[in-house]
Amino acid sequence: MQPIWPSIVAVAGTLLGSFVTYLFQRQTAQRTNSEVRSESRRKEFADAVAAFASQATTLRDAEFGRAKKRIDNPRAPRKEEALETYRQRTAAWSAYYTVQLYADPEEGKTLVDEAEK
Q: Which of 2, 14, 70, 73 shows a CA-CA span of 20 to 30 A to 29?
């Protein structure tokens, strides 16, 4: 009977070691996946904020150009400038909604409020 106990202890130790290794590997894999997702989300958010800032600047330029043309020549037709401004406004709102999609509720509102100033 004595020769069987060392074998049982060895098998139990091997199984316990395998199980503990599995737990550590699973935890490491989950942490790695979480970090990758977090980094990807941060990059997408930064891209969305950059796109919004670019579109907001373009919209401001279009509105400034439209106002300047109206001041310089009040009787000139304004349809083209109005259409361009509306296109730029649509693009800016689209970028705004993209920022809202990727942002935490408070963080996105703060950033957008700051960009509007």
A: 14
Residues 85 and 62 sit within 8 Å (Cβ to Cβ): yes
What distance in Å separates the CA atoms of residue 56 and residue 62, rounded to the nearest whole number? Answer: 10
Report whether 42 contacts 75 (CB < 8 A): no
Q: Which of 51, 33, 35, 30 is nearest to 102 (CA)?
A: 51
Q: Using CA atoms of 30, 33, 34, 36 in order, give the dihedral in degrees to the nearest 10.
A: 160
**What pLDDT digit, counting tens, does each position of 16-40 carry?**
999 999 999 999 999 999 999 888 8
